[in-house]
Design goal:
CATH class: Alpha Beta
Structural class: alpha/beta
CATH topology: Rossmann fold
CATH architecture: 3-Layer(aba) Sandwich
Order of helices and strands: EHEHEHEHEHEHHHE
Number of domains: 1
Largest sheet: 7 strands, parallel
CATH superfamily: NAD(P)-binding Rossmann-like Domain
C-alpha cells in the first residue's frame, strides 16, 4: 500500500505510548501528516518533535477534545490508543477504579471518535477511525472488571458509530484488540512473569510486538479499505484458549 497515506492528516491519540508510538513511526514512514496527542507525558511525546505535531489533550475533557480537533482541520484519520490499565489491587478500590476507567478507557475515546466523525461528515471527507480495545473485551479474564468493562463498551460504541456512518459518508470505524504485548502497559507484567505460562503452555508462540498492532491499525486506515464495524484481535491466538 505505498503512498496511499502520503499527505493525509491522522491523529494518533495516546501516540507517545508503546503501541501508539510504533503506529506513529509507521505512519510517518509512509508520509502521513501525524498529530500526536498526549495527556501528561510531554517528555515521551517529544521523541516526535519536528516530525509530528504534538498537542496536549486529556480526552476525558470536552474542551481538550474540541481543541485537538480544531487544531487538525484537514483530518482524514483517527487512531485512539489513550487509556489506562485500571488495575485493582484492593477490592475496596473497585468503585473508584470503575469510574476512572469509564472516563479514560471508554467515554473519552468514544466521544472523540464521535466528534471526529461529525467533523469528517461536515467536511464531506471519507475517513477512517480506529479504536483500541483489548483482548480482555473478547475473552473473560478474572480480575479485569474495571478495565475490561470499559473496553468492552468501547467495542460496542465503535460498532454503533460504524453503523451510523456507513454508506455515502464513507466513514469507516473499526476496532483493534491487542493481546499480551511486550510494549506499553503489559511490559511490567511480562517482566514480573505474570504471563509466562502463556508461553510455557504453548498458548501463544511469542509475546506480541508493538509493530503487530501498528500494522493492524494501518490496515484499517487504508483509504480504499472496504471494512467497517469490525473487531480485529491481535493476540497470537491467546483468546482461543481462555
Amino acid at each position: 500500500m505505498p503512498d496511499t497515506l502520503r499527505g493525509k492528516t491522522i491523529i494518533v491519540a495516546g501516540g507517545s505510548g508503546g503501541l501508539g508510538a510504533a503506529t506513529v513511526e509507521l505512519l510517518l514512514a509512509e508520509g502521513a501528516e501525524v498529530v500526536v496527542s498526549y495527556r501528561s507525558n510531554l517528555a515521551r511525546a517529544q521523541a516526535f518533535e519536528g516530525r509530528a505535531t504534538l498537542i496536549q489533550a486529556d480526552l476525558a475533557r470536552p474542551g481538550d477534545r474540541a481543541r485537538l480537533l480544531d487544531q487538525t482541520p484537514s483530518l482524514y484519520g483517527l487512531a485512539v490508543f489513550a487509556g489506562e490499565a485500571a488495575r485493582v489491587t484492593d477490592a475496596g478500590n473497585l468503585d473508584d477504579a470503575l469510574l476512572r476507567s469509564h472516563l479514560v478507557n471508554f467515554a473519552g475515546p468514544a466521544l472523540l471518535a464521535r466528534e471526529a466523525a461529525a467533523r469528517l461528515r461536515l467536511a464531506s471527507t471519507p475517513g477512517a477511525i480506529v479504536l483500541l480495545s483489548t483482548m480482555q473485551a473478547i475473552a473473560v479474564f478474572p480480575g479485569s472488571t474495571a478495565y475490561a468493562g470499559a473496553k468492552t463498551a468501547l467495542v460496542q460504541a465503535a460498532r454503533i458509530l460504524a453503523k451510523e456512518c456507513r454508506g455515502k459518508a464513507g466513514i469507516r470505524v473499526n476496532v483493534v484488540c491487542p493481546g499480551v504485548n511486550d510494549a506499553g502497559m503489559a511490559q511490567a507484567s511480562i517482566a514480573a512473569g505474570k504471563y509466562a505460562r502463556f508461553l510455557s503452555e504453548d498458548l501463544i508462540p511469542r509475546y506480541g510486538k508493538a509493530a503487530d498492532v501498528a500494522r493492524a491499525v494501518r490496515f484499517f486506515l487504508e483509504p480504499d479499505n472496504y471494512i467497517t464495524g469490525q473487531v480485529l484481535t491481535v493476540d497470537g491466538g491467546l483468546t482461543l484458549s481462555v
